[in-house]
Design brief:
Number of domains: 2
CATH superfamily of the largest domain: Glycerate kinase, MOFRL-like N-terminal domain
CATH class of the largest domain: Alpha Beta
Shape: globular
Helix content: 25-40%
Number of strands: 12
CATH architecture of the largest domain: 3-Layer(aba) Sandwich
Radius of gyration: 22 Å
Order of helices and strands: HHEHEEHEHHHHEHHEHEHEHEEHHHEE
Structural class: alpha/beta
CATH topology of the largest domain: Rossmann fold
Strand content: 15-25%
Number of helices: 16
C-alpha cells in the first residue's frame, strides 16, 4: 500500500515533470520559419540550459546550425544540459554577482547592430532577473545591497522587479529595444502569480507599465534607504519603453509553461492513485506564515481520501538568524496551526528544486511532526520565530532533496487527508 508521503512526493514529481520546458520549446521552435539572416539566442533563468539545448536540437534537426549562436545564463549548479553552439554561463541567484553582470553585458553585445533579416530567440524563465544584472544608475555593489534588502523586507516579486527594471539596461523591455529592428521571439516559462509577462525576469522583451515613481514608492514603503537608487528614481531619466513603443512592433512573447499546468498534472497523478484532488489556488502570495493559516483552515474541510493543491509564491520577512526557505517556513507554520491533527499530511516545495539558499526543495509534514520534534527537544515555535525552519525539518529527516530540476514555476503545496 502506498504511503501518504509517497503520494505527495509523486504529485510533486508530476508537477515538476509537467513544468519542464523541453518539449514546449521544441514545439514552439519547430513552426518558426528560417530567417534570411542569422539566429541569435539569448536569455536567462533557472531553466536556461534545458531551453537552450531543446532549441538547439530542433535547429540542428533542420540543418540550420551554422546560422545559430548566442549566450544564455543560469544559476550556479543548474547547468543540466550543455548546448554546443549556444554558450551557457552561470551566475548567482537570488542575489546578483559579477558573473551575472558579465552575462548581461554579453547578451546586450550579442543583440547589437542587428538587421531586420535577423532573428533573436529569447529564452526566459524564473530567476532571470537576478541572473542578468545590467546596472543603470547604480553600481553592482549598490545593487547587491539593495537586492538583499528587498529580499529580506517581505516585498513581493512584482515590487522587487519594479525596482530592478528601473536600475537596468536590459530589463523592462530594454532588451527588445536593443535588438530592434530584428524579429524577436521570446519563449517564457512563468514563475509569477497571474503569469504577468512584464514581471517574469523583469520583462526584458515586454513593454513596462511601471514607472520610476512606482519604483521609488517600493523603497519608501519598505523603508529601504538606498541613496543612489533613490536619487536615480527621483531624476526619472531614460524611462523604460512603454506599451505602444515602436521597438515592440516585431516582438512576439509566448508563454509556454505555467504553474497552473504543473498543478493540474499533480492532480491527475493523485487521481490515478485513487485520491480526489483539486487545485485550490495557483495564486497564493503574501507572508508564508499567513498562507499557512488559510491552508490550515482549508485543511479542516478535507474529507478522507481527498487533497487540495496550491501554487503561487509566498514571501518571508527575515527577522531571525536561522536557515529558512519560504516553503519550509510555510510548512513549519502550518504544523503549528494544525497542532498535530490526525490523518493530515502536507508537502511544500519550490519547483526549481531549491528552497531559498538551501539544498532542499522543501519539506514534508506528517500528523506526528510536532510530537517527533518534541522528543528531539526541538522548539518548533522558537525555530519559526528565528526563521530556522530548514534546521527543524532537517533534524526530523523530513526535507525533500531533489537537486536542480531545470525549471521554475513557483511553489508547489499539497495537503492530503487519509
Amino acid at each position: 500500500m502506498t504511503s501518504p508521503r509517497a503520494h505527495l512526493l509523486s504529485a510533486f514529481e508530476a508537477a515538476v515533470k509537467a513544468a519542464r520546458p523541453d518539449q514546449a520549446v521544441r514545439d514552439a521552435v519547430r513552426i518558426i520559419a528560417r530567417p534570411k539572416g542569422r539566429t541569435l539566442v539569448v536569455g536567462g533563468g533557472k531553466a536556461a540550459s534545458s531551453m537552450a539545448k531543446a532549441l538547439e536540437d530542433v535547429w540542428f534537426e533542420k540543418g540550420w546550425e551554422r546560422e545559430l549562436s548566442g549566450v544564455v545564463v543560469t544559476r550556479y549548479g543548474h547547468a543540466l544540459e550543455h548546448p554546443q553552439r549556444i554558450q551557457l554561463l552561470e551566475a548567482r541567484h537570488p542575489v546578483p554577482d559579477a558573473a551575472g553582470q558579465h552575462a548581461a553585458t554579453r547578451i546586450l553585445e550579442t543583440v547589437r547592430d542587428l538587421t531586420a533579416d535577423d532573428l533573436v530567440m529569447v529564452l526566459i524563465s524564473g530567476g532571470g532577473s537576478a541572473l542578468m544584472p545590467a546596472p543603470h544608475g547604480v553600481t553592482l555593489e549598490e545593487k547587491l545591497c539593495l537586492s538583499e534588502a528587498l529580499l529580506a523586507s517581505g516585498a513581493d516579486i512584482g515590487e522587487i522587479n519594479t525596482v530592478r527594471k528601473h536600475l537596468s539596461r536590459l530589463k523592462g523591455g530594454r532588451l527588445a529595444l536593443a535588438a530592434a529592428p530584428a524579429r524577436v521571439v521570446a519563449l517564457i516559462v512563468s514563475d509569477v502569480v497571474g503569469d504577468d509577462l512584464s514581471t517574469v525576469a523583469s520583462g526584458p522583451t515586454v513593454p513596462d507599465p511601471s514607472t520610476f515613481q512606482d519604483a521609488l514608492e517600493v523603497l519608501v514603503k519598505y523603508g529601504i534607504d538606498s541613496k543612489p537608487a533613490l536619487e536615480h528614481f527621483r531624476k526619472g531619466q531614460s524611462e523604460t519603453p512603454k506599451p505602444g513603443h515602436p521597438a515592440f512592433a516585431r516582438v512576439e512573447n509566448h508563454l509556454i509553461v505555467t504553474n497552473s499546468g504543473a498543478l493540474e498534472a499533480a492532480c491527475e497523478a493523485l487521481e490515478r492513485s485513487g485520491i480526489r484532488a483539486r487545485v485550490w489556488s495557483d495564486s497564493i502570495t503574501g507572508e508564508a506564515r499567513e498562507a499557512a493559516k488559510t491552508h490550515a483552515a482549508e485543511a479542516q474541510t478535507l474529507e478522507p481520501g481527498r487533497a487540495f493543491l496550491s501554487g503561487g509564491e509566498t514571501t518571508v520577512t527575515v527577522r531571525g538568524t536561522g536557515r529558512g526557505g519560504r516553503n519550509c517556513e510555510f510548512l513549519l507554520a502550518l504544523a503549528l496551526e494544525l497542532k498535530g491533527e490526525a490523518n493530515l499530511y502536507a508537502i511544500a516545495c519550490d519547483t526549481d528544486g531549491i528552497d531559498g539558499v538551501t539544498e532542499a526543495a522543501g519539506a514534508m509534514l506528517t500528523p506526528n511532526t510536532l510530537e517527533r520534534a518534541e522528543r528531539l527537544g526541538l522548539d518548533a515555535r522558537g525555530m519559526l520565530e528565528n526563521n530556522d525552519a530548514y534546521s527543524f525539518f532537517a533534524a526530523l529527516e523530513d526535507l525533500v532533496v531533489v537537486g536542480p530540476t531545470g525549471t521554475n514555476v513557483n511553489d508547489f503545496r499539497a495537503v492530503l487527508r487519509v
